[in-house]
Amino acid sequence: MTGKFACSIVTLVLGLGINFLASGADQSAEPDAVPPIPEPRRFVSEHRARFNGQPVEYTATAGETYLRDKVGKPKATIFSFAYTRKNLADGEPRPVTFVWNGGPGSASMWLHMGTFGPKRVAVPSDATYPGTPPYPVLDSPETILDVTDLVFIDPVGTGFSRALGKHESKEFWGLKEDAQSMAEFIQTWVTENGRWNSPRFLLGESYGTTRAAAVAKILEADLMMGLNGIVFLSQALDYQGSTPYVRDNIIAHITYVPTMSAAAWYHGRIEPMPDDLEKFLEQSRAFATDELMPALFKGNRLDAAERDRVRDRLAYFTGLTPEYVERANLRVQGTRFAKELLRDEGLAIGLLDARYRSDEIDDLDADPAGDAANRAVSSAFKSALMDYMRKDLGVEWDRVYLAPADDELSDQWRYRTVPDGRSYEPAFVNTAHDLAEALRINPALKVMVGSGYYDLVTPFFDAEFTLNRHDIRAEQVSYKYYGGGHMMYVNEPARTQLLADTRAFIQQQTHR
User: Fold this and answer.
1) Where would I find the beta strands (DSSP E) of 91-222?
2) How far is CA 452 from CA 14, 190, 479, in A?
3) What is the pLDDT along the chain (512 residues), one digit of tens a residue?
4) Rg of the chain on CA atoms, in Å
5) Which helix (H) or strand (E) holds 60?
6) CA-CA distance, 150 to 461, in Å (whole number)?
7) Closest to 493 measured CA to CA, from 127, 99, 51
């Protein structure tokens, strides 16, 4: 891989950008005057490397794409990292995959530096703390640049992406608003780069899957932009199944059980200990569906003997004590489970990845004070990206890279799905119906769903529950499972298998 070596030629395309206050602009201007909008700024570099054993020469373009209003004026700048292959044969149909993370309010840093980018940060696969800087930034020859171009996208309020002119960031912060802006970005990028007839894929993680389903509907139904495939990592389309902290939400009490079983198995809390994890998880799925769900549905009509049997079975599958399950009234919440499983050791387990453990100050609290997994790896990912941007991509800019996001984004994020002034009853977020519509419009469109066994944020059983209903055809969806958590790729065997599965999916959907 290139980097600071001779095969990398870094070109800075600075456009006409100026600092308004430092440029000698008239300080007596009207207080509401809007600074002039400069041309988009781009940093372009040339590289060569081997991916999947294949030599690839490619261009890396880290830069802005402007979204424009109906009269052509810029309203937002979306920063992306685009890796596009060079020296293609005339007419070769090169696929392009649009990649984003979730949040909402997450830059594409995780997927970019975790697995799909040409370089990656290495953290311990065994879920131990990665230590202090410097963190290893390694070549990633297993990634999929041999079969597709990659465009990593930072939504408004993350990374270098911002609202422009008189527009405010909150105009883009919402379930529908965000999806519309991402669809507009794809249409603009495809047009500016002459890629209208390229095979197209979406790849999202967590809220990025919520977004991908909504964007797929806009592309297919409104913009006449057919898709070849969608990759969901850590699926989150219907939030009912991933909201464990709502006490009377029966669905989440069911969907979380197999993940709690996996976590308890990993930490040696299942007695007797099963030898085969996958067979054990099949049993856990069956218990949750065929025994626990009817028991919770019956409520006070559940007789005492059946209640005791279900209690003891739930204790077995979660590694908790029957006394705790009884006090929980057969409703073991996923977040409380993370604090309870290893309470006797004074440890909490991770939510994003239950393999991680942390020694928290308050051992009596019902819920973890933070997330052991997120706290363990965040510094490594942020440090690696910032170093890679400067040294390999030549990105030198005084604009702050927002990771985490704009501090107002979470409070102002809008999940309302109808205009203000119209009657609206809040409900669980759900874009599964958008996916169903996109799949009906385009019956050749397929979805690959990748899930980590140890993910206590978006449990793998919820992915199955969600995508096996909502009028989604089973033959258009395939499932893959990995020995990791929400970001399964921090586990090296899971990372390489995820890349192999994604490569095979893209080849399948492009008939290559």
Assistant:
1) 96-100, 119-121, 137-139, 149-154, 162-163, 200-205
2) 41, 32, 11
3) 444 333 433 333 333 232 323 333 444 445 567 778 999 999 999 999 999 999 999 999 999 999 999 999 999 999 999 999 998 877 788 999 999 999 999 999 999 999 999 999 999 999 999 999 999 999 999 999 999 999 999 999 999 999 999 999 999 999 999 999 999 999 999 999 999 999 999 999 999 999 999 999 999 999 999 999 999 999 999 999 999 998 889 999 999 999 999 999 999 999 999 999 999 999 999 999 999 999 999 999 999 999 999 999 999 999 999 999 999 999 999 999 999 999 999 999 999 999 999 999 999 999 999 999 999 999 999 999 999 999 999 999 999 999 999 999 999 999 988 888 898 888 999 999 999 999 999 999 999 999 999 999 999 999 999 999 999 999 999 999 999 999 999 999 999 999 999 999 999 999 87
4) 24
5) strand 54-68
6) 29
7) 127
For strand 96-100 and strand 119-121, is the pairing parallel, antiparallel, or unpaired? unpaired
pTM of the model: 0.92
Tell me the domains of the chain and their CATH numbers. Answer: 9-233+378-510 (3.40.50.1820), 241-373 (no CATH)
Answer yes or no: are the C-beta atoms of 447 and 477 closer than 8 Å.
Answer: yes
- Amino acid sitting at position 315: A
Q: List own/partner pairs for 377-382 with CB under 8 A and 24 or more apart.
A: 377/123, 377/130, 377/487, 377/490, 379/130, 379/133, 379/135, 380/121, 380/123, 380/130, 380/135, 381/109, 381/110, 381/113, 381/114, 381/121, 382/109
- DSSP E strands in 395-474: the ranges are 446-452
CA angle 70, 76, 79 (to 5 degrees): 135
User: What residue type is assigned to position 250 of the chain?
Assistant: I
- The total of other beta-carbon atoms located within 10 Å of residue 296's CB is 18
